[in-house]
Amino acid sequence: MNETGEETMSLRVVGALRDDIVTMVLKPGDVISESDIAARYGVSRQPVREAFIRLAQQGLLLIRPKRATVVKKISPEGVRQSRFIRESIEVEIVRRLAALPGSGSGPVLQSLIADQEAASAANDSRTFHTLDELFHRTLARLAGVEYAWRLIDDHKMQLDRVRYLTLGVSSSQVAIGEHKGIAAAVVEGDAPRAEAAMRAHLARAEVLLNQTIGDHPDFFE
Q1: What values do phi and psi take at 69, rounded to 5?
Q2: How would you label 7-24 residue by residue, b for 16+ Cβ within 10 Å and e otherwise?
């Protein structure tokens, strides 16, 4: 396999392993090994080793020399830092998008929200989580700053784990209502209202964090 192929395989393992950690297939405190993960994803140990290093740098794994690698417990401070970074960037994204004339964002956002409603009605947390991510990434794309979403994505893993733990019909319906408010403000070109709606949406992270610590204390540092 050439260098590009090896890098691509490593990125695939990073994505798959990160998704399993975020969606609690692999829970905080779980012990994993290169050989087990290689078998799980049908790859050699080299891309798994590289993926372990990347995910350790992102705070999801604890690599202990000559000992087992462990899925790190969730850091409450890491969640709060993630939320700060995300809010700082996403508020600017919706402000920019709301100020863009003729962005054509209405039908795109409405379609995404309709898909979210279908996933919520089916109580499909995994699909809803994917669609939730897509909604926010689409805001960045429509605003012409999709790279900004990549910056957010690199720093929000701790927050993602908390969000996934609290997903359910009730929680998803709240999120959908907030998405509708953000979308409406953007489509109407009301930048201050879009900013306020996004801040309120992301501020729920603190409530979700406290709720999750109470429900799953063993998952936290």
Answers
A1: -85, 140
A2: eebbeebbebbbebbbbb
**CB of 17 closer than 8 Å to CB of 55:** yes
Handedness of CA 17, 22, 23, 25 (dihedral sign): positive
pLDDT at 187: 95
The answer on 108 and 21 residing in a single domain is no
The number of beta carbons lying within 10 Å of the beta carbon of residue 61 is 22
Together in a domain, 29 and 129? no
- Domain containing 66: what range? 3-71
List pLDDT tens digits, range 78-98. Answer: 999 999 999 999 999 999 999
Tell me how crowded residue 85 is: count the other CB atoms within 10 A of its CB: 15
pTM above 0.90, yes or no: no
DSSP string, 37-102: HHHHHT--HHHHHHHHHHHHHTTSEE--TTS-EEEPPB-HHHHHHHHHHHHHHHHHHHHHHHTSTT
Provide the number of structural domains found in the chain.
Answer: 2
